[in-house]
TrEMBL record:
GO terms for biological process: regulation of DNA-templated transcription. The keyword Transcription regulation applies. It comes from Methylobacterium hispanicum. SMART domains: REC (SM00448), Trans_reg_C (SM00862). Residues 124-218 bind DNA. This is Transcriptional regulatory protein tctD. Signal peptide: none annotated.
Length: 222
């Protein structure tokens, strides 16, 4: 899962980035409202953490423009303003949740995961694809009823595939959704991860669509 973190406080952003990566998220960072607006308009994110007090352009106007353009990703707003009118302004602009600084990082992670779950669970608490089952709320996988042990990158790739099960996910989209924006990605890295996943969930379940990408199938699996 990929998150946009729009926060100008370097210390707070660093703390949040470490916590989110530890939870298996990839993320891009925006330090001002101009970059945040551009990234939210041009990239695909599973959710956004948006500080309202960004330099260059305030978060409310950024959020309003995203919603006006039809961008529907969940947005968790951060702000130092705790007045009710400020909260109303944030929600009217299109925020899905609201946290007032200071806050516990654990609470932000919990709320963010809940937003992603509601947005991507497709109305079901768990998503099944053959013997593979994904729980978006817990961020866990089971295979034939047993917990599936995955590395962080394996978890991100398999999460992208199961949310689009039986549809082709382009290789370029996997790279964008799985790796941090500033990461150096080897040309064969996704194929290496796919190969490792096939060993864990049976080769027949992940199909390579030559020239396009990969597709998670619910057909016969060992």
């Amino acid at each position: 899962m990929k998150i946009l973190l729009a926060e100008d406080d370097d210390a707070l952003a660093g703390e949040l980035a470490r916590a989110l990566r530890a939870e298996g998220f990839a993320l891009d960072r925006a330090r001002d409202g101009i970059d945040a607006g551009h990234l939210g308009e041009t990239e695909t994110y599973d959710a956004v953490v948006l500080d309202l007090g960004l330099p260059g352009r305030d978060g409310v106007s950024v959020l309003q423009d995203w919603r006006a353009a039809g961008r529907t990703m969940p947005v968790l707003v951060l702000t130092a303003r705790d007045g009710w009118s400020d909260k109303v302004t944030g929600f009217k602009a299109g925020a899905d949740d609201y946290l007032v600084k200071p806050f516990r990082v654990e609470e932000l992670v919990m709320r963010l995961r809940a937003l992603v779950r509601r947005a991507q669970a497709h109305g079901a608490p768990r998503i099944a694809c053959g013997p593979l089952v994904y729980d978006p709320g817990l961020g866990s996988f089971e295979h034939h009823g047993l917990p599936l042990r995955l590395t962080g990158l394996e978890w991100r790739v398999l999460g992208c595939l199961i949310l689009r099960k039986e549809a082709v996910v382009p290789r370029t989209e996997l790279i964008e959704r799985v790796y941090d924006g500033d990461a150096e990605v080897d040309s064969n890295s996704v194929e290496v991860i796919i190969t490792r996943l096939r060993r864990k969930i049976a080769p027949a379940t992940i199909e390579t669509v030559r020239g396009l990408g990969y597709r998670l199938m619910s057909g016969s699996a060992a």
